Records
---
Amino acid sequence: MFVLGHEAEVTPAEPGVTRKLMAHQGGLMMTEVTFEKDAVGNLHSHPHEQISYIAKGSFEFQLDGTITVIKQGDSVYIPSNAVHGVVALEDSIIVDIFTPQREDFKY
C-alpha cells in the first residue's frame, strides 16, 4: 500500500498541531504529526503500543512522569496505557506508529 504524503489529508489535532494519517493496514498505523513551536500534545494514555520518531525539531517529552528532551533522529517506545505528552521546543514533526490501529484517528 502506497500513501503519498502530499496527497494525505491534513486534520487538526490540538492547537498548533496537525496530523496526517499515513499507511495503515492489518495491526499497524503510522501518522505524521506537525507541531508549531510551543504547541502541546496534552498528557494522555491509550491501550495501543506506540513508537515515536522525531523527523524534525525537538520536544520536551513526558512519559510516565519522566521528562526528557528528544530531538531529530531520536525515538521513544510508549507501552500500552503509559501516560505521555509533548511540548514542541521548535517547529517539529513526529512520526507515530501504533499497534493496533487507532480507530479514533480514521476518517
---
Amino acid sequence: MLIPKLPQTARTKIVNVGWMLGERGIAVLIAFFVMTLVARALGPEGFGAYVYIFSLTMLLGPIAHFGMSEILVRESVARPTDRHAVFGSAMALTSFFAFIGVLSGIAIVAVFGGPPGVTPWLMLLACSQLMVIPIETTWAWFKADERMGLVVVPRSIVALGIAVTAIHLVQNGYGLDAFVALRALEQGCIAVSALAVFAWATGALHRLKISWREIRHLFSAGLPLMISMLATILYMRIDQVMLGQMATADELGRYGLAVRVSEVALVVPMALGTSFFASIIRAEARGTLPEQSQRLYDAMTLATLLAGLTLAVAAIFLFEPVFGAAFADGLWPTLILILGLPLYSWGIAREKVLLARRQYWLTPVIALCGAALNIGLNLALIPHFGGIGAAWATVATFLATALGVAIIVPALRSDASGMLRSLNLWRATQRLHRALA
C-alpha cells in the first residue's frame, strides 16, 4: 500500500486531511440537503428572509470568534505548558464578545429592518448561536495535536440529527421561525458535544483557568484576526444584506441559494488550510516555510479547480430539477461564483502563511480593502444587474485581494509567485508528489 511507505509526517497529514474532508463533506452534503428542504418549503421570498437573517449573523460571527481558532492552534504548538491558562482565558474573552455580537444583531434589525418576516425576535434566536462559540474554542486543542477524528465524529452525529429534524419540520408544514430555531439548536448541540469530548479526551476541563495576562495577550493577537475575519465575512456576505435592502426578497432568495451551492466546494480549501496550519507553523520555526507554503498553494489550486469543475457540471444539470423552477435563475450566479473558488483558496492559504510569520496586521488591512471594494462594486452593479452583478463583484474582490494585493505589496511578492506557480498544474502535481515521496 502507498500510505504505510510514506514518512510519518506525510501519513499524519493525509489522515488529518481525510478526517477533515470526510467531516466537511458529510456536513456539506447534509447542509445541502437541509438547505434544499428549506428553500422548497419557504419559496424564494421566505428563503430570502432566511438568508438575510443568517447572513447578518455570519457578519457578527467574527466578533464572537475574535480570531481565536488560529491563535489557539499557534499558541498550543508554541507553548504547550501554558494550554490551560490560554484556553480558559480564550473562553472568557470570546464569551464577552459573543454577548456583544448578540446585542448588535438585535439592534441592527430593530433599527434597519429587513425583508418581510424578519423580526428582532428571530434575530435573537439566530444570534443565540454566537453564545456557543466560546465552547467551540476547545476544538483548537485537537487541531493543534492533529487529532482531527475527535472533532469530526461528534459534529457528524449532530449534523445527521439535524437533517432528520428538518425532514420532520418540512413534513409538518413549519415556517421560517422553526427553521431559524433549528439552526440555533444545531449550534447548541455542537457546543455540548465539544465540551463533552474535550472533558473525556483531555481531562483538562477542570484545570482551565483565567489569566488576565493571557487575556491581554490573546486580545492583542486576536484583534487583527478579528478585524480580518470581519472584513472577509463582510465582503462574503454583505452582498446578500445589500440585496435584501436594494432588491426584492425573491431575488435575494435565488442569489442566496446560489451562494450556498457554490460554497459546497469551499469544504476543500477550508479542510486543507486547517490540516496544513500546524505544519506551516513548524516549517517557519525550521526555516522551511517557503517550500511548505508552495505546497499549500499547489494543493489549494489543484483541489479547488477539481472541486469547482465537478460542482459546475453538477449545477448545470441538477440546479432546476433539485430546487424547482422558482429558483432556476440562480444558476448563472452560481456558475460565476464557482469561478472565484481558486482565488478564494489562495487567500486562505496566504492567511495561514502570514500567521506563521506573525505578520498579523497585513491580513486585516487586505481584508478591509477587499470589503470596501466589494461594497463599492455592489453599489454599482446590484441596481442594474441584481444577483448577477453581486456575483461578479464577489469574484472581482477575490481576484483583487488574493493576487492583486500580493503583486502590489513588496512583502507579499513571494506569495504572488507561489500562487502563479501553482497554475502550472503539471509542476504543482510533481512538487506535491516529491513532498510525499
